[in-house]
C-alpha cells in the first residue's frame, strides 16, 4: 500500500509539472505580441487571430489524445506530445517568414492537448472521494503555467536580450522552452506508470472502441460539461492570450513587463484557485449538502452551476471596469473572472471522472476538446473591428454564455441528472460503457 500511495503522489507531481510547462510553452507567445507584431508587421486584429490560432488544434487533438491515453496509457502519449512540441518550438525560433512561423506555432499550440492526458493519468490513480481535489491541484497548478510564462519569460528574455544564439528575445524564449520540453518528455516516459493496477488499466483499455466513445461523447452529462467548459476553460484560454494586449492597447500601457504582469494576475487566479473548485465539489458530495434547492441531491451540479453564473456576472463587470477608464479596476475584475474560471473548471473536472470512472480519458478529451472552442471564438469578439471600443467584447461574450447556463440548469435537474451519464442523444446505456450514479 505504501508503494502505491507513493506512486500515486508521484503521478500527480509528474502530471502537474508536465502540464504546467505545457501551458507555459502554449502561451509563450503572449508576452511578446508587441515585438513580434513589429517584426512581422501585424495589426491589432491580426494579433487577435494569432491569439485565437493558439487554440485551433486543441478540440480534435484533445479528443484524440484522451482516447489514446485510455488505450495506450498516459506516460507514452504525454511524452510523445512534449517531444514534438519541443522540436517545433525550436523550429519557430528560426522562422523568418511569418507564414512559416504561424504554422510552426500552430503545432506548438497543441501542447494544450496534454491537459486531458494528465486528467486521465491522475484519475487512474486516485479514489473517487478525492478526485475533485486531486484533479483541481493538477489542473490548477498546471494552468498557472500561463502566469509563469507571463511573469518569467519577459523578465528572463527581456527587451535587451543578446544571448549566444539570438539577439531577439522572443526567438530565444521559443528555443530554450523547446529544449526543456524535450527533456520533460524523457522524464515523463521514464518515470510515469499508467495505472495503479493491471485490473484498472484493462478496465479502461476495454472501453476504447469507437462505438463506446461515440456513446459516451453524446451523453447529457458529457454534453453539458463540455458546453460549461467552453465558458470557463475556453474563456481562460482566450484571456491568457489576450489580456496583455488588452491592458497595453486599451489603457495605453506601453511597458511590456507591466502589461504582462497585470495579465498574469488573471492566470494566477484561474490556475492556482482551481483546487478550490474541485474541493468544494468533493465537500458538498461527501456531506450531501444542498445549496440550491431546485437541484436537490445533485451536489456537484449545484456547485458547478453557481460557478457558471459567477463567470457571466463578472464578464459584464469587466466591461464596466474597462469603461471606467481606471486600469486597476480592470485588473481587479480580471482577477475575479479568473477566480470564476477556476471555480467552474475545478467543479467540472470533479464531475468528469466520477461520472465516467472507466472512460475518464475519453470524456475528458471531449469536454476538454470542445471546451477549447471558447478560446478560439472569444478573442475574435475582443478584437472585433465593429466594436466601439475594446471593452465591449466582454459583454458580448457574456451574452453568448447565457444559453449554456440554461442548458446546465436543465441537465442538473434531479430527474435528468440521475441518468445524465447513461442517457443522451444516441440512446441509452450500451454494453461496455460505464454506469455510475447521476450525481457523484
UniProtKB/TrEMBL annotation:
| Gene3D superfamilies cross-referenced by the UniProt entry | MFS general substrate transporter like domains
Q: Which GO terms describe its biological process?
A: nitrate assimilation
Tell me any Pfam family this protein matches: MFS_1
Give the record's membrane topology: Multi-pass membrane protein
**Which PROSITE patterns does its entry note?**
MFS (PS50850)
Sorted alphabetically, the Gene Ontology cellular component annotations on this record are: membrane
One GO MF term, please? Answer: nitrate transmembrane transporter activity
Q: Which domain of life is it from?
A: Archaea
UniProt domain Major facilitator superfamily (MFS) profile: residue ranges: 11-417
Subcellular localization:
Membrane
Q: Which key words are in the record?
A: Membrane, Nitrate assimilation, Transmembrane, Transmembrane helix
**Where, by residue number, does the polypeptide cross the bilayer?**
12-34, 72-94, 100-119, 131-153, 173-191, 212-235, 255-273, 303-321, 327-350, 362-380, 392-412
| Family per record | Belongs to the major facilitator superfamily. Nitrate/nitrite porter (TC 2.A.1.8) family.
The molecule here is called Transporter
Amino acid at each position: 500500500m505504501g508503494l502505491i500511495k507513493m506512486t500515486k503522489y508521484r503521478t500527480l507531481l509528474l502530471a502537474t509539472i508536465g502540464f504546467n510547462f505545457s501551458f507555459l510553452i502554449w502561451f509563450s507567445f503572449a508576452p511578446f505580441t508587441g515585438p513580434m507584431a513589429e517584426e512581422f508587421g501585424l495589426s491589432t486584429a491580426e494579433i487577435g487571430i494569432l491569439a485565437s490560432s493558439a487554440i485551433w488544434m486543441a478540440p480534435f487533438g484533445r479528443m484524440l489524445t484522451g482516447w489514446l491515453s485510455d488505450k495506450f496509457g498516459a506516460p507514452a502519449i504525454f511524452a510523445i506530445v512534449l517531444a514534438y512540441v519541443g522540436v517545433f518550438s525550436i523550429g519557430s525560433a528560426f522562422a523568418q517568414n511569418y507564414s512559416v512561423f504561424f504554422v510552426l506555432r500552430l503545432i506548438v499550440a497543441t501542447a494544450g492537448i496534454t491537459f486531458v492526458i494528465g486528467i486521465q493519468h491522475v484519475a487512474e490513480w486516485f479514489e473517487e472521494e478525492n478526485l475533485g481535489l486531486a484533479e483541481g491541484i493538477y489542473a490548477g497548478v498546471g494552468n498557472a503555467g500561463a502566469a509563469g510564462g507571463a511573469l518569467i519569460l519577459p523578465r528572463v528574455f527581456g527587451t535587451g536580450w543578446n544571448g549566444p544564439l539570438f539577439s531577439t528575445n522572443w526567438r530565444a524564449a521559443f528555443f530554450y522552452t523547446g529544449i526543456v520540453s524535450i527533456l520533460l518528455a524523457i522524464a515523463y516516459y521514464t518515470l510515469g506508470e499508467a495505472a495503479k493496477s493491471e485490473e484498472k488499466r484493462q478496465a479502461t483499455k476495454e472501453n476504447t472502441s469507437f462505438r463506446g466513445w461515440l456513446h459516451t461523447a453524446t451523453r447529457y452529462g458529457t454534453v453539458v460539461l463540455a458546453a460549461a467548459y467552453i465558458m470557463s476553460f475556453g474563456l481562460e484560454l482566450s484571456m491568457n492570450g489576450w489580456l496583455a494586449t488588452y491592458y497595453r492597447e486599451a489603457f495605453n500601457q506601453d511597458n511590456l513587463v507591466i502589461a504582462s504582469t497585470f495579465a498574469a494576475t488573471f492566470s494566477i487566479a484561474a490556475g492556482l484557485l482551481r483546487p478550490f473548485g474541485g474541493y468544494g465539489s468533493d465537500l458538498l458530495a461527501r456531506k450531501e449538502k444542498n445549496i440550491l434547492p431546485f437541484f436537490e441531491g445533485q451536489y456537484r451540479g449545484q456547485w458547478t452551476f453557481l460557478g457558471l453564473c459567477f463567470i457571466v456576472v463578472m464578464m459584464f463587470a469587466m466591461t464596466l471596469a474597462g469603461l471606467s477608464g481606471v486600469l486597476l479596476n480592470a485588473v481587479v475584475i480580471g482577477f475575479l473572472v479568473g477566480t470564476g474560471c477556476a471555480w467552474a473548471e475545478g467543479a467540472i473536472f470533479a464531475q468528469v471522472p466520477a461520472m465516467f470512472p472507466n472512460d475518464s480519458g475519453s470524456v475528458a478529451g471531449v469536454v476538454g476538446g470542445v471546451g477549447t472552442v471558447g478560446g478560439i471564438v472569444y478573442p475574435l469578439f475582443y478584437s472585433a473591428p465593429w466594436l466601439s471600443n475594446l471593452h465591449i467584447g466582454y459583454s458580448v461574450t457574456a451574452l453568448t454564455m447565457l444559453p449554456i447556463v440554461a442548458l446546465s440548469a436543465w441537465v442538473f435537474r434531479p430527474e435528468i441528472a440521475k441518468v445524465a451519464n447513461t442517457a443522451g442523444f444516441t440512446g441509452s446505456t450500451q454494453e461496455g460503457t460505464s454506469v455510475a450514479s447521476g450525481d457523484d
